[in-house]
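User: My instructor asked us to take a sequence, write out its structure as tokens, and then describe one feature of it. I'm not sure where to start. Here is the sequence I was given:
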Amino acid sequence: MKYILVTGGVISGIGKGIIASSIGTILKSCGLRVTAIKIDPYINIDAGTFSPYEHGEVFVLNDGGEVDLDLGNYERFLDINLYKDNNITTGKIYQHVINKERHGDYLGKTVQVVPHITDAVQEWVMNQAKVPVDDDKREPQICVIELGGTIGDIEGMPFVEAFRQFQFKAKRENFCNIHVSLVPQPNATGEQKTKPTQNSVRALRGLGLSPDLIVCRSAKPIEMAVKEKISMFCHVEPEQVIFIHDVSSTYRVPILLEEQGIIKYFKQRLNLPIDDQPSDLLMKWKKMACRYERLLKVCSIALVGKYTKLSDCYASVFKALEHSALAINYKLDLMYIDSTELERSMEAENSVKYHQAWHKLCKADGILVPGGFGIRGTEGKLQAISWARTKKKPFLGVCLGMQLAVVEFARNCLNWEDANSTEFDPDTKNPVVIDMPEHNPGDMGGTMRLGKRRTVFKTENSVLRKLYGDEMFVEERHRHRYEVNPELTHCFEEKGLKFVGHDTEGNRMEIIELENHPYFVGVQFHPEFSSRPMKPSPPYLGLLLAATGTLNGYLQRGCKLSP
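Assistant: Let's start with the prediction itself. The structure tokens for your sequence are:
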């Protein structure tokens, strides 16, 4: 097993996740089996209870793990399926060690950060690195480990110490450290500054880790003189300094790394049994990146949500839309609309914001209402859904988006004026969305219906079934506490809102489709979590096809994309 540790310096959010994913992609393109681990130094057990404004979206895995969004990057780039134990947090490690102490495993010894916490980290990494993540179920050969935060953070110290020890346990030819740093360019001088990188590398060395590669992030391409300066002051060869400037799409990052000789370096440094040249997989990435940059036709989608100030809050949704747009040769124009700005109360409070939000919604080719929790912004989402239904605009509702589509239909088509979800109004006379019997209202963490579950189509006359290749069932990832009330579904079906998919027991409604509409679909699951750059998610692909007026042609061709 070869281990590649990716650390970061100067600032967080520098792109360690994309760089770690890209390194994995390059090594996979050389025929190696690659897995990935993300270490988050926060004390939370997992990401499940975070607001999306804290660390971006909560990504859900097949096994129900609620994890950091970087694991989504790993899955998309490497086309693998990870597990909840591929996301290590301080909380998980301390909980593991404390449980062992309570069990008496330490035989009366004083339990300390060194060696007990650091040993637990090393043990966890070595065990999880062996777990197969590909469809062929073979043990990985390379484990890419991303350490979250920046070098010098107090909460990350035990992990840095663990890897200082681990480099000797694994041996030099099996362990490599990549340090990602920032090269800022102040507007005042326009000069690219190397001092932050020098200080960051010095701090890393002071903690006992020496970088084998220094990846420098910058807004613009870095000059050769800067590379030579970093090489000289950071005690590495010039070819060990890699530059990654801001690019038009993340698909370009693996190509930039490969162009700077990273395959040759890894082959020598880790003694890998590979050729110097990448395989067809990286060539596909190159073609995809070039195609992305040449797209001319534009499709605009309005994303109506309540976490619109930070794009990372809907990272997987954005990627799923982007994958689908790329598959049909369209450039995606994603317009984020804060759902509160569509509400009537906003017109009185700030009429400019209100009219701007409605202008965006009206000019969009398609409308998407993603998942979420809490009552804030729900009336605005209901307004958007009503607009999509009555104006025949292509619409996709995901999780809460599907539940609100059912609420909107009940209010405006069944004339149940107080129809609502018990999440927002526990005393409603028409509870069209209810909490699930097994939902535990006590603990919040890990108590939802989570992970990959089977959805069975109950009719052949379903647009989503055709988009999924006419399969009898699909398996997608879930994350919800509430469900459509199964006792009321017959009322909706009589009026044309069909429940075309349900769970294996037939009790839980999973997919809705509206008759006599170009594309009005709701799904209880989160299809965005299993979307891949070369395998777009069918519900999102359907939305893009309908928004560009090409859905019927696609279905008539037997779900084959036109050349």
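For the description part of your assignment, you could build on this observation: The chain is about 35% helix and 20% strand. Try explaining in your own words what that tells you about the chain.
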